[in-house]
Design brief:
By secondary structure, the chain is α/β, with parallel strands linked by helices. It folds into 2 domains: 125 residues, HAD superfamily/HAD-like (Rossmann fold), CATH 3.40.50; 92 residues, no CATH class. The protein is built from 11 helices and 7 strands. A 5-stranded parallel sheet has the order 5-4-1-6-7. Strands 2-3 form a two-stranded antiparallel ribbon. Helix 10 links the parallel strand 6 and strand 7. Helix 1 crosses helix 2, helix 1 crosses helix 5 and helix 4 crosses helix 5. The chain is globular.
């Protein structure tokens, strides 16, 4: 079975918490009102794990296009977008990005661990297939879920981006799985691109951080019970 990462297994932390934590890493304590205004502006500018930016400055266009293929472009794109927002917190763009790399910057959905554990205990192999520009394995290590994941097909390592069928085929190859007997679970039309690789696909709407998002529905499709 294949799972998307962001919006399917985990969600980024609340934007205000994100800004407060990043500012604290820069040695600044912001009041919540100021952090809320700043968070709104930063999300509009473009936050990894958030809505697409309203506008990408021309000088960032190349990095933006390559953000899920190269780690340096991913960082340059998102720190560059954050830098378009005026703030008196020195070093904030890099601190905001660094928060993305930390386990504390993400919240696994409540359904995630129980679903992955049930699949693991049933002997069903699992791969995470993600359009991402950084290594998410340390997050799973910190959450104690590494034993539940058999492989990672990450776009910046594979060199292919969903919905390209090649990334799904690579994931199936990592698991030694027949695509026609494999289910891809995600939250966007890009995840449904797995159908072009011969897989079945289940698209679940992303939920807010901390709320169940229906992952348990995959267990019946996999032929195992919770």
């Amino acid at each position: 079975m294949l799972f998307d990462f962001h919006g399917t297994l985990a969600q980024v932390e609340d934007p205000v918490t994100w800004v407060l934590a990043a500012a604290a890493a820069c040695g600044r304590e912001l009041d919540r009102g100021k952090a809320t205004v700043l968070a709104d502006r930063l999300v509009t500018a473009g936050r990894a794990g958030g809505p697409l930016p309203h506008r990408v400055p021309p000088q960032l266009a190349e990095h933006w296009a390559d953000r899920d293929l190269y780690a340096q472009s991913h960082r340059a794109a998102y720190t560059g977008l954050a830098a378009t927002v005026t703030t008196d917190v020195e070093g904030l763009p890099d601190a905001l990005y660094d928060r993305l790399l930390e386990p504390g910057g993400w919240l696994p959905y409540p359904d995630t661990e129980p679903t992955l554990r049930t699949l693991h205990d049933a002997g069903i192999k699992v791969a995470v297939v993600s359009n991402v520009g950084f290594d998410i394995r340390p997050l799973f290590d910190a959450w104690g879920m590494t034993p539940l994941i058999d492989a990672y097909a990450l776009s910046y390592e594979v060199g292919r981006i969903k919905p390209d069928p090649a990334i799904f085929l690579r994931a199936c190859g990592m698991l030694g799985a027949d695509p026609e007997r494999t289910l891809m679970v995600g939250d966007t039309p890009a995840d449904a691109g797995a159908v072009r690789a011969g897989c079945a696909a289940l698209v679940l709407p992303a939920a807010e951080p901390g709320r169940p998002n229906g992952l348990g529905a995959t267990l019946a499709l996999a032929g195992c019970a919770a």
